[in-house]
């Protein structure tokens, strides 16, 4: 279930160049990093000067503009969580949470049910 809130290999079916903004956060068990297209999500960020790019499901590689950290409150738990090493990728159309990084950074776990 998505969270609501105001070469690095990312294999995902998420496309690029969407005309609609999606404010939700989607857990991605295959993601190696957290990703957002919204530079306003960050409480700290710096320009990314590396050569690595995010690889998406259709094989395209897209540029990383910034790297930093963000946080938000989980609505039903009133608990603040952090997203460390969040990548700002303007051409992605979904906010993705790396399940493994999120669980480690916030000392939580995910349960998936059919």
What does this structure look like?
This protein is mainly beta and 114 residues long. It contains 1 helix and 10 strands. It has one domain. Helix content is 7%, strand content 39%. The chain starts with a strand and ends in an 8-residue tail after the last helix. Residues 1-18 have low confidence and may be disordered.
Find the count of extended strands (DSSP E, 2+ residues): 10
What is the alpha-carbon Rg in Å? Answer: 13 Å
Domain tally? 1
Q: Biggest sheet: strands, sense, closure? A: 4 strands, mixed
Q: What's the helix-strand series?
A: EEEEEEEEEEH
List keywords for this structure.
114 residues, mainly beta, 10 strands, disordered N terminus
In brief, what are we looking at here?
With 114 residues, the chain is mostly beta strands. It is built from one helix and ten strands, in the order E-E-E-E-E-E-E-E-E-E-H.
Compile the SSE list and pairings.
Elements: E1 3-4, E2 8-9, E3 24-28, E4 35-36, E5 44-47, E6 53-55, E7 61-63, E8 66-74, E9 79-88, E10 95-98, H1 99-106
Parallel strand pairs: 2-6, 3-10, 4-9
Antiparallel strand pairs: 1-3, 5-8, 6-7, 8-9
């Amino acid at each position: 279930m998505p969270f609501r809130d105001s070469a690095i290999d990312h294999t995902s079916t998420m496309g690029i160049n969407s005309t609609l903004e999606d404010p939700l956060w989607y857990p991605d068990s295959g993601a190696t990093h957290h990703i957002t297209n919204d530079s306003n999500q960050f409480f700290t960020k710096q320009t990314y000067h590396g050569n690595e790019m995010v690889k998406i499901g259709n094989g395209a590689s897209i540029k990383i503009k910034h790297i930093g950290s963000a946080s938000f409150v989980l609505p039903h738990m009133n608990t603040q969580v952090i997203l460390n090493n969040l990548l700002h990728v303007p051409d992605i159309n979904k906010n993705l949470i790396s399940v493994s990084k999120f669980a480690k950074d916030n000392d939580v776990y995910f349960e998936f049910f059919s």
